[in-house]
Amino acid sequence: MYQYVAFGLVIQTPMPCPLLPKATGTPDIRVSYGQVPHALPVITAEGVCFQANAEEVLIRLPSGTAFWLKGGQDVVIAQSTGFGDDAVRLFLFGLVMGVVLLQRGELVLHASAVQVGNFAIAFMGHSGAGKSTLVAALLHRGYRVLADEVCVIREGVGGQSMAIPATPYLQLWEHALPHIWQTPPSLQRVRPEIQKYHYPLDQNAFQAEPLPLRRLYALEGWNKAIYTCKPVQGTQHIQKLLGYTYHVEYLKGLGAQALHFKQCAALASRTVLRTVRYSSTWVSFPEVLDLLEQDMQHEHMHKVTQDLTELPRHNVY
Amino acid sequence: MELTTASVITQSEDQVSCELDGETVLLRIDTGMYYGYNGVATRIWELLEEPQSINEVCAQLVQEYAVDAEQCAAEVLGFLQELMAEGLIEEQQ
Description:
- The complex is a heterodimer.
- By secondary structure, chain A is an alpha+beta fold.
- In chain A, about 25% of the residues lie in helices and about 35% in strands.
- Chain A contains seven helices and 20 strands.
- Chain A has helices at about 85-105, 130-140, 175-180, 235-245, 250-255, 255-270, 285-295, and strands at about 1-5, 10-15, 30-35, 45, 50, 55-60, 65-70, 75-80, 105-115, 120-125, 145, 150-155, 160-165, 170-175, 190, 195-200, 210-220, 230, 270-280, 315.
- In chain A, the strands form three sheets. Chain A has an eight-stranded mixed beta sheet.
- Chain B is about 40% helix and about 30% strand.
- In chain B, the strands form two sheets. In chain B, strands 5-1-6 form a three-stranded antiparallel beta sheet. In chain B, strands 2-3-4 form a three-stranded antiparallel beta sheet, with helices on one face.
- In chain B, a hairpin with a 2-residue loop joins strand 2 and strand 3.
- In chain B, helix 2 (about 55-65) crosses helix 3 (about 70-85).
- In chain B, about 25% of the residues are buried.
- The interface between A and B is medium-sized, with 26 and 19 residues.
- Strand 20 (about 315) of chain A pairs antiparallel with strand 4 of chain B.
């Protein structure tokens, strides 16, 4: 058995995880190999790869590898033949831990995060929006990284929302590398089958202590060359936080919608949010980065008041 | 279910709400639908924390806003009928 720290928790694993810092002490989450049931006895929500109820979640990947998440405390892995350890680790410390954290009643955003001064700034986005690439580019400009994809928010002292350091590495797609480095370094693949790479973060690059989260950006690519950065308030602010929650589709199964709403409402009241739109073909990425960095450095984000009447309805879960 | 000004209504148990930047955001838990309202709607929602008759709600609004009592009743009834249809408020017998 091995023990590591990730997301501020001690996680016990049956296999080594060389990218993670080792931990001593009582594990918060125990991962083991074993048998995983074919189906859950009660199903309150399901998707293509999962079933969920208030206590348990079953995730079954197309390859046959399955993860059984019990009560936010135990994870059982049924690893199918041909599915390597790299792949297990990739899913374990991404999707699986993300859902375990949701089971534990945590607020988890699909976001990367960096340190700016004494605070954290988070960049929310759907897969492929550019969260990791952006953060790697900011790292290159001297910002320390707290999270790459899974951003846990916990209550801190004095009613602050704290961004929690996740795991000390970035996962970058091959095509993103030239946007970050003139000469990309030599990197290990996250798993043999895909062109995604690990970029380990040392103590100068990884911010290992939680920081208060004061602002968020929602990264939304589009097919125009222009860059816009607009403040978002009220209902739309909460809407974005709800929508960019990590694997929000699992929340209904866990019966956690009311708690999640309250968490997002609290976070919204303590933060400012901007939506950033930029070309999804990475045209003018250095200019986008300059503009974004300028915005990040501004002490205050100006709140824009809009006169609104009834707003449209949206479905979250 | 038709509401009248005598109907006593309150916030439904099936929702959670919060106020942010002068807007009221409501989430209907079972359906996952959420709604945003502002202006007078925010004040009406606040008044419905406790069961009130629609008459009482209107009486309060007429005091707080420069609005004609009859117009207020008509608009409030319309708004509340909508909230009722969405399962955000319930009638108390």
